[in-house]
Design goal:
By secondary structure, the protein is α+β, with helices and mostly antiparallel strands. The chain is about 25% helix and about 30% strand. The strands form five sheets. Strands 7-8-9-21-20-22-18-19 form an eight-stranded antiparallel beta sheet, with helices on one face. A six-stranded mixed beta sheet has the order 2-1-3-6-4-5, with helices on both faces. A five-stranded antiparallel beta sheet has the order 10-25-11-23-24, with helices on one face. α4 links the parallel β4 and β5. α2 packs across α6 and α4 packs across α6. The longest helix has 24 residues. The protein is elongated and about 75 Å long. It starts with 8 loop residues before the first helix and ends with a strand.
Length: about 425
């Protein structure tokens, strides 16, 4: 396996995670055309400039925190709602769409509109209003309005909010005063950081981070020179991943290979021995192996006997990454494993002593899950040279410091036959 050049731990974490709080996330920033009497040309132009200024200052702040920002408007010339919706929906993986519109209803103050006051959009709207109240920003009504209409909310595929801006606040011909505008932009930035910021947990020898990728929460642990074992439930029984971690006093654990009933159906090796030597797979499938010196590799094997040279080995698959590129290998798995977006668990190697553990949420309103190729792409973006899939769906579980970090799609942990445990 190719190795990365020598680097410090700080440099490594910077490269894998980035230091910015919104790294890896995409936001669509929309800017509407002013409402009102179209004969008021000077007023409309001021309103339009104010809205674009808000949108671009807001987008610049998001980019400073590492986000990728997509603008639906980039100039004063009018862009129809239909055109803006088309632009926005080219980015279904976006964490949220934030639309800036002007308000000339005669009522002073601001309001945030959502399609439904629930889910991610509702959380974001509440966070914005809370921050506005803390900064003494004048609000219309309660500050949050459910908008049954509003095509920019109804027709876009990602969570979306619409902020109506009182462009008259602040007096003068320039419309919204500079201090009021900056205060308004900062309320939105702080709200997005509150809802979407990457969560980081560090422990002895590992770093955990929750990230957003392709419309899904993905949980990632990075470990340097881990002491890795394969933990197994007693023959004929199943245990949760957290129970297997606790049994071995493990600090990190991820669910393992596939199971039928209570029997593993992919090879397992513990201390150069395998209780599953009768397993004969229909094709060579991926397996993670740990040698006596602690170095790791991902290989392919059809039987457990082929893996007995490893101190520990766990079979699963299919392969997701090879040579630092996404390559989903045909390992004769059924379609329910290989097709579509689903909760996923995977293991990857950056080099022979650097391990990545990834779990993607799925099967919920907020998290659609990942395809195998998307899981591979996520890991490649974090430095993976090789990677393989583990059992997913309701089995996908990541335990860090004794707590389950992902959101298991069964509503709780599903018992499994084995797990990778880091001591």
């Amino acid at each position: 396996m190719s190795k990365l050049k020598s680097e410090s731990e700080t440099e490594f974490q910077e490269r894998v995670f980035h230091s910015r709080l919104l790294a890896g996330k995409v936001f669509v920033v929309d800017c509407g055309c002013p409402h009102g009497d179209e004969t008021e040309e000077n007023v409309l132009r001021v309103d339009e400039e104010v809205l674009l200024t808000c949108a671009f200052e807001f987008g610049s702040e998001l980019a400073r925190h590492g986000a990728r920002v997509i603008y639906t408007r980039s100039r004063l010339a009018g862009v129809s709602i239909r055109e803006r919706i088309i632009i926005a929906n080219k980015y279904p993986q976006a964490s949220a769409l934030i639309s800036w519109q002007n308000s000339r209803s005669g009522t002073q103050g601001f309001k945030v509109m959502v399609k439904k006051d629930e889910g991610t959009a509702g959380q974001l709207a509440k966070a914005i209003v809370q921050d506005m109240e803390a900064r003494d920003v004048k609000l219309q009504d309660s500050g949050i309005v459910e908008a049954a209409g509003g095509r920019i909310l109804q027709k876009t595929v990602m969570p979306a909010i619409l902020t109506e801006v009182d462009t008259a606040e602040g007096q003068g011909d320039s419309g919204l005063a500079e201090t009021a505008r900056r205060r308004l932009v900062q309320t939105h930035v702080q709200a997005l950081l509150k809802v979407f910021r990457n969560s980081v947990v560090t422990g002895p020898g590992y770093t955990y981070r929750k990230m957003r990728f392709a419309g899904t929460d993905v949980h990632l642990v990075v470990l340097r020179s881990p002491k890795l074992i394969v933990a197994t439930a007693p023959s004929g029984t199943l245990e949760t991943t957290s129970a297997l971690a606790a049994l071995h006093s493990g600090k990190v654990a991820i669910n393992g290979g596939y199971v039928h009933g209570t029997q593993p159906v992919t090879p397992v090796v513990v201390n150069h021995k395998s209780p599953d030597c009768g397993i004969d797979l229909p094709a060579a499938r991926s397996a993670l192996g740990v040698l006596d010196d602690g170095s790791m590799e991902i290989t392919q094997a059809r039987t457990a006997q082929e893996l007995l040279g490893f101190r520990y080995a766990l079979g699963a698959g299919p392969q997701l990454v090879s040579g630092g590129k996404v390559q989903v290998r045909d390992e004769k798995f059924p379609p329910d494993i290989t097709t579509g977006a689903a909760p996923r668990a995977a293991v990857a190697l950056v080099d022979s002593h650097t391990l990545l553990l990834g779990v993607a949420d799925g099967r919920s309103r907020q998290d659609r899950g990942l395809t195998l190729a998307e899981m591979g792409a996520f890991l490649v973006a974090r430095g993976a040279v090789t990677a393989m899939n583990l059992d997913g769906g309701g089995s996908a579980t990541l335990v860090v410091g004794g707590s389950v970090k992902n959101d298991p799609s069964d509503g709780g942990e599903r018992p499994v036959a084995n797990a990778l445990v880091i001591l």
